[in-house]
Amino acid sequence: MGAEPDRITIDGDIDVTVRRSPRARRMTLRVARAGGAVVLTLPRAVSMAEGRAFAQSRADWLRKTRATMPQRTVARFGAALPYAGKRIVLTPAETKLVRLDGERLLMPAHRPAGVVSAAWLKHIARQKLARAADRYAARLGLSYRALTLRDTRSRWGSCTHDGRLMFSWRLAMAPEEVLDYVAAHEVAHLRHMDHSAAFWACCEALMPGHSVHRRWLKQHGHELLAWVFVEDAGFD
């Protein structure tokens, strides 16, 4: 008996990634908000034939849902990339350094625009998030152990029990107030490792009116996730 496929196609045009999960209790279908990728999760005891039939029965829903998702946008020269809630045009230039010039991000013409712009966003995100986290932690009279950046798909930030903060570097693309809110949210977890009323009161004390920024992420966060930077890179 051969290995079962990790991808199937239904209706001839909908590609579905298949994942097995020993923890899953039922079959689930999810559509990624960035790009519309479809993932079918199957419990261990469910057959591939059952999974295929399940996905097939929801083909119309999948097609309608994917139609509402923003298409992936490649970060290339000439693209208008979100930055701090605005748009900047990725512009090739005779330069060795990346430099923001009004509404243009000037970058070395001989280097891939996606790699360079992603590295620049990470650099900016680290600076801004560290400043915000330091500021909010000082207000609480607390400190954190480390701050790391990742390209996460399901959360914009997290805080561990031992005080390690993690943020998505794509927050550099969001409005400044939204980035600040996520920093305040995670720092508040240094005091309350839950989402209790006390936690939300702490968030409100750190950033009054934070709910509008939380709402912005729910409404527009998928637009930031839709950007493709081709490959990962660091920034010196």
UniProtKB/TrEMBL annotation:
Q: Which residues form the YgjP-like metallopeptidase domain?
A: 25-220
Entry coiled-coil feature ranges: none
Q: Which InterPro entries match?
A: UTP_pyrophosphatase-like, YgjP-like_metallopeptidase
Please identify the protein, giving its name as recorded.
Answer: YgjP-like metallopeptidase domain-containing protein
